[in-house]
Amino acid sequence: MISPYGMKHFWMLWFVKSSYSNSSCKMIPSVKRLLTSGTAVNYSRSVAPIIKAEPTRGLVDESVKIEITHLLPNEQITLHSKLLSEDNDWWMSYAHYVSDVEGNVRVSHDKSWGGSYTGQEQMGFIWSMKLAPGSREGMRLRKRDVTTPLSVTVSVHSGWISHNFDQETVLASVVLERFYMAPGTTRLQFRNGRVVGTLFLPPGPGPFPAVLDMWGGGGGLVEYRAALFASRGFAALALAYIRHEDLPPAKEVFDPSLSYFEEAFVALESHPKIAKGRVALVGLSLGFTVALLMAAELRNIHPKCLVCISGSHFNLIKDGNSILFQDANDHESKFKFAEDGAVIWKYIPLPFTDPESMVKLDKIRCPLLIICGDDDQNWPAFESAFEIQNLMKVAGNDHLLTTVVYPQTGHLIEPPYTPHFRSTRFKLHSTNKIVKVLWGGSTKPHSDAQEDSWKKILAYLENHLVLEHPAVNQSKL
Fold first, then answer.
1. Which domain-ending residue is among 118, 148, 179?
2. What Å distances lie between residue 191 and 83, 205, 247, 330, 405, CA to CA?
3. Would you please indicate which residues are annotated as catalytic (active-site) residues?
4. For the segment 218-240, what is each residue's pLDDT rounded down to a tens digit?
5. 262 and 371, same structural domain?
6. 100 falls within a domain
7. Which of 261, 272, 273, 270 has the alpha carbon at shortest distance from 235?
8. Confidence (pLDDT) at 315
9. Quick one: 387 and 270 in the same domain?
């Protein structure tokens, strides 16, 4: 005997089948699958779709599991994500999915069939974000206030759509809060003599292993990586050394003796919450060169290890000036330009023929991790990595070197799930002129590199700052 509920499906399938048999129109593929599968399915929504996210609140380097339930079987849906940056620019991504026979979509397991990314990508809804249509061009998504989270709204729409999301009906939505500071992490303004920065301390009494964190030629005080280091158990000083209102004039900061950076290291290591002798240097781009110079030239400090990202052993710091930003006109003959007009600076130091313009790598006496992409169009990081390897081999200290090169990866290798920027606007220090700079990389491999390199960096720091010295008090999440 067929129940009333079963009878409803019986008549629905009979009607669809008989209508198809008596007409010349083509059967909808999803209906055809239902008829051939022998599964009776209710096409009406008796329960509203639900979107689940775990966790809804977490650190920005944590992955999120998203599942949509109570959809129709084999239903086409669009997963749409958006956030409003601190610059008041909207960022967004979208992806097309098809629910399974039970009406579920599991983003971590199911494939996206189109949109901002394709394939099985658990975190694609964030790392594939681009500026929304109508936004200013060439902007970069960077967090300035690390005490507040990024708020990402994830919504589900019926059908496969690619625009006008605000005009479409939302079946379900959830807001994710993505934090840079774990609960209990402390943020302190750091002023010691000339040294300007922000100190982040993990939860707990300490003392903690520490990182002196140095960004590149863009300048300012960049805190988000240091905040994440502290959230993962390492005290971190985000150091300002270019374009900050509290810094002395550039020539005094870029002292040929590197005294500013020496002062910063000593001040950090002398802090009562820092484990003496357990301080690493982390530098990206220009910070890469500074870290090498500190380890090679400063005899009064002893970094435990170096992590150098997307930079070169070409010495930018001479006579108190940065060659790239102060004397760019002297190198215009080496500028190249992409089809869209973005400037490529990577050829300025090439070829590496003048030993006096290079960091003296034979003086490096601590472990060194180099991370770079083979499509870096901003600086010859890829070429430098192999040159450094050869020079250190000749010097007999290549046993200290670990090199990781990522394919189709550009210059801006940042913490996990940060959207990829192939080119953005950039402000030159000497003239305040805005130019478009080509960083390089392709979105999917670059994003994979960011996720993998962050894991390697944390493991490297733990191996050299913690595991070798188990007595160090390191807070863990």
1. 179
2. 34, 22, 10, 36, 36
3. 285, 376, 411
4. 888 999 999 999 999 999 999 99
5. yes
6. yes
7. 273
8. 87
9. yes
